[in-house]
Amino acid sequence: MPVLSTTAYGQAEDPLNLARALMNDAGGAVFTDGTLMPLLNSAYRALQRQLADSGVSVLVAEMDLDLPVTSGLTQTEISDTSDPQLPTDLLAPHILWEQATGSGNVFVPMEKIVAGLPNLSPAPALRMWEWREDKINLVGATAPVTVRIRYEKLMPQLVQGTDPILIRAASDVLAYATAALAARARGARALAGDMQVAASQATVELIERYIRPEQFKARRRRAYGSRRGIVYL
Questions:
Q1: Neighbours of 122 (CB within 10 A)
Q2: DSSP characters for 36-101?
Q3: Measured between alpha carbons, how far is 66 from 146 in angstroms, rounded to an integer?
Q4: Is the dihedral of CA 12, 15, 19, 22 positive or negative?
Q5: CA proximity to 168, closest of 213, 111, 102
Q6: Is residue 218 part of a domain?
Q7: pLDDT digits (tens, 9 = 90+) for 54-82
């Protein structure tokens, strides 16, 4: 028998089939792939946002951007309209490094600022950055700098049933959420409510599965005075 490649990622058809079964339309007479695919993509995006809000990054990518010196300084922002611009699939930046362009030096981590960039004089290095109003703000540098951005990547839209779902073990969550949206569109509010509850619970369990290995729960002994004793009557 031929050896078939396997993957931990499911396909879009998995939650679509389960959603149809939950709505008693396993044959797809009413809820076709074309009908359900926009709803599945909505649930897909919502799940990524929920995971991100819980500190779970699904897809992470890196890109190097060369910032040349113009008018004495490198650009002071990287946005969707700057040149170079932000990666088109960027959801949010996580870490930035910098290197003198063409030097071959090791990339040096930049400091992320939360409360606004300080009023500093430009130097040969950028040194720090902030993410505000959907753009990366910089102090500017007096020499060309290459910035390496590690960022959370927006997942590609699902188009057909064989497209991979790039969130592990997410088929059930997406099926419940897709069924909830479809039932609501058909006016079946009771079913929509049940499916939404199931989707919320499955989402919590998925988030716990992601974050539990990163947690360390210390244990300590119960105080001596709190131990149970034997009471004679």
A1: 17
A2: HHHHHHHHHHHHHHHHHHTT--S-EEEEEEEE--BTTB--SEE-SSSSS---TTEEEEEEEEEEET
A3: 4
A4: positive
A5: 213
A6: no
A7: 888 888 999 999 999 998 999 999 999 99
Report strand pairing: 111-112 vs 135-138. Answer: unpaired
Confidence of residue 209 (pLDDT cuts 50, 70, 90): confident
Q: Which of 124, 98, 100 is nearest to 112 (CA)?
A: 98
What is the extent of the structural domain holding 127?
A: 60-153
C-beta contacts of 186-192 below 8 A and 24+ residues apart: 191/23
One domain for residues 131 and 166:
no
- 171 and 207 within one domain: yes
Is residue 233 in a domain? no
34: which 2 tokens? 């074309």
How many structural domains compose the chain? 2
Asked if residue 66 and residue 141 are part of one domain, the reply reads: yes
For the packed helices 189-211 and 33-53, what is the interaxial angle rounded to 10 degrees? Answer: 40
Percent above pLDDT 90 for the chain: 73
Extract the tokens encoding 226: 């709190």
- DSSP lists the bridge partners of residue 129 as 112, 138
Same domain, 38 and 103: no
User: 106: helix, coil or strand?
Assistant: coil
Q: What is the pTM of this model?
A: 0.74
Question: Residue 3: pLDDT band by 50, 70, 90 thresholds?
Answer: very low
Q: What is the pLDDT of residues 17-28, one digit of tens each?
A: 999 999 999 999
